[in-house]
């Protein structure tokens, strides 16, 4: 089964019925991030999506001091359907090993998707993320 993380988009004249909105939520306590999420939805799902995201923020073990919901119209920005990355679990012995392995995996993905050399390479490219 393929997971989709974005709505499909067919180029056409945009009306308020077909316009998609980015609904984002960020919850925090003090300076610590607790929860965050984004959904791309049509206009008629904004209310329900906001409620779902606020519920997500409030269902954490720690009550957030702040919940920020931001809604932006995507306008003519094309949205592509993409396959979600596979979820992989790895057993690590300590936090340092976890961080080193996560950095190695993310660096490999960056090179794969963007064709960029390693961050510490003498040939690094300013256009690479």
Structure description:
- The chain has 129 residues and is an alpha+beta fold.
- It has helices at residues 46-58, 95-114, and strands spanning 20-29, 32-42, 66-73.
- The chain folds into two domains: 1-84, no CATH class; 86-117.
- The protein is 26% helix and 22% strand.
- A hairpin with a 2-residue loop joins strand 1 and strand 2 (32-42).
- It is flat, with a radius of gyration of 19 Å.
- Residues 1-16 have low confidence and may be disordered.
Summarize the SSE layout with pairings.
Blueprint: E1 20-29, E2 32-42, H1 46-58, E3 66-73, H2 95-114
Antiparallel strand pairs: 1-2, 1-3
Largest sheet: 3 strands, antiparallel
Given helix and strand content, the structural type is: alpha+beta
N/C terminus separation? 30 Å
H/E element order: EEHEH
What is the residue-mean pLDDT, rounded to a whole number?
A: 80
CA radius of gyration: 19 Å
Task: Give the beta-strand count.
Answer: 3
Morphology: flat
Overall tally of structural domains: 2
Task: Tell me the helix content.
Answer: 25-40%
Adjacency order of strands in the biggest sheet: 2-1-3
Beta-strand share of residues: 15-25%
Model regions low in confidence, pLDDT < 50 over at least 5 residues: 1-16
Helix segment count?
2
């Amino acid at each position: 089964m393929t997971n989709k993380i974005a709505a499909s988009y067919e180029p056409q004249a945009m009306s308020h019925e077909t316009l998609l909105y980015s609904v984002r939520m960020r919850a925090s306590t003090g300076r610590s991030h607790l929860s965050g999420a984004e959904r791309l939805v049509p206009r008629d799902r904004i209310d329900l999506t906001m409620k779902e995201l606020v519920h997500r923020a409030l269902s954490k073990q720690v009550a957030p001091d702040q919940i920020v919901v931001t809604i932006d119209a995507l306008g003519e920005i094309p949205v592509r359907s993409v396959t979600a990355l596979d979820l992989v679990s790895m057993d690590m012995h300590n936090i340092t090993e976890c961080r080193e392995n996560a950095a190695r995996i993310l660096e490999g993905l960056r090179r794969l998707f963007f064709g960029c050399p390693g961050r510490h390479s003498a040939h690094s490219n300013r256009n690479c993320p």
